[in-house]
Design goal:
178 residues, 29% helix, alpha+beta, Aminopeptidase
Length: 178
């Protein structure tokens, strides 16, 4: 088996990223979008994340993108500037292989290196179909900070939204450097 590499995403990765996300939107509850966005919209989102100075990573094996992860602003107000929200999506054929954990580890490291202090995971249906995402974040040291019950409706059922948090780097021991 060839080695999996985690690297910064490139514009040429957008078709694969869009396909992975389209499957998640159409078949899962990790995303609460109801219709998958096209490649142009996914490219716009990718460019916005990168222009904001946030990391956007892909997991690749033999030229195939098996998953991706990125961090973005948790909230738009300036006081939140040291807190990021993460997103991780894995191709259906690559789920359960540990790729999500590798991406999350690299993403946390990249965010720490950029000076971010807190990471929030907003997990759609963390008590149901997305239990794998909850477990992934628990293994990485995230702690549950809240559950908003029955706040989304998708695939014919009400969904809970789970919030998990992990301190990065110096956390709240010192003021942020930016």
């Amino acid at each position: 088996m060839t080695t999996l590499s985690i690297r910064s995403g490139l514009p040429t990765d957008i078709p694969a990223i869009a396909a992975i996300y389209a499957h998640a939107v159409s078949h899962g509850t990790a995303s609460w979008e109801l219709e998958p966005p096209g490649e142009a919209e996914m490219r716009r989102r990718f460019e916005t994340i990168q222009a904001g100075g946030y990391p956007y990573l892909v997991a690749e094996r033999e030229g195939e993108i098996l998953g991706y992860a990125y961090a973005g602003a948790y909230r738009p107000r300036p006081a939140y500037r040291s807190t990021v929200e993460n997103s991780i999506y894995i191709a259906p054929t690559a789920q359960g292989l540990g790729i999500g954990g590798l991406l999350l580890d690299e993403l946390m490291q990249a965010c720490t290196e950029r000076g971010f202090r807190q990471m929030i995971a907003v997990i759609g249906d963390g008590t149901g179909a997305s239990v794998g995402s909850r477990r992934l974040h628990e293994r990485a040291g995230f702690r549950l900070i809240g559950v908003a019950e029955k706040v989304g409706f998708k695939h014919g059922r009400w969904l809970d939204q789970m919030l998990m948090q992990k301190e990065l780097g110096e956390g709240d021991c010192t003021p942020p450097g930016f």
